Amino acid sequence: MRLLLASLFVLLLPITARAANPPADDRPAYRLFTAEGKPVAFDKMTKELATADVVLFGEQHNDPIAHWLELQVARDLAERKAGQLVLGLEMFERDVQPLLQQYNVGELEAKAFEEQSRPWPNYPTDYKPLLELARQQKLRAVGTNVPRRYAQQVAKGSLTVLDALPAEEKAWLAPLPIKVDYELPGYQGMRKMFGGDASHAAGVQNIIQAQALKDATMAHFIRQSRQPGQLLLHVNGAYHSDNHDGIVWYLRQAEPALRIRTISTVAQAQLQKLDKEHLQKADYVLVVPEDMTKTY
């Protein structure tokens, strides 16, 4: 018997080795890494995510693998949290929350919801599956983003334009005044991206303030939408949570003890190891091939 078991063990060694170290000619669709660049299994990642209060899944908006994995993470966490998962979405703005809530509980038909809620163009393929999961699993779904018209106004005229808004419209924003830390890596990156020299300083500062308005508003409604013991899974563009700033910074300003985990989506030429530039970008990094097809 011992000889038989030993023989089986030897025979299985090549199989287990191949599973842990895929052949070089494999074409994986994605790989997951920790912040330190260590490969991590999906189940191990979601088991750890389930211990958090807030999980921010940073996507590239047109990446199909990120959208598919968001659905898988939501399914897994819904099972692990047993009725304590809340779904948050950057893609829906606070003024359409009543519509989202009605659709979520089956009081509004899909056609009416999609006509009135200003969904993003890629909603049918990329975000509708998440809302359908929420309906099936009876998960609360919340839109967290500032109505885009206010972000556009700030980009043109600074945060001060918000002071004149009626009280009922201010309810769709983070509480005013909104503090902006221009030294955060993400905002510094925007300054470089938009050419933050002296001749453009005011315009670039307004663009950063518009981004901060979105980050602060999403953080505010993330906190407002979860109860103690619940986990809120939030889907947002990676730039809003990369490097643990943006939304994360505003969450920590308001509630330092909040247990936050982040995922970032990046593209690489190779998937064997995490490129140096992506280390520490998030608690977990989803790596997809550079030539992955896009949803738009």
UniProtKB/TrEMBL annotation:
<keyword id="KW-0732">Signal</keyword>
<protein>
    <submittedName>
        <fullName>Iron-regulated protein</fullName>
    </submittedName>
</protein>
<dbReference type="Pfam" id="PF04187">
    <property type="entry name" value="Cofac_haem_bdg"/>
</dbReference>
<feature type="signal peptide">
    <location>
        <begin position="1"/>
        <end position="19"/>
    </location>
</feature>
<dbReference type="InterPro" id="IPR007314">
    <property type="entry name" value="Cofac_haem-bd_dom"/>
</dbReference>
<feature type="domain" description="Haem-binding uptake Tiki superfamily ChaN">
    <location>
        <begin position="45"/>
        <end position="251"/>
    </location>
</feature>
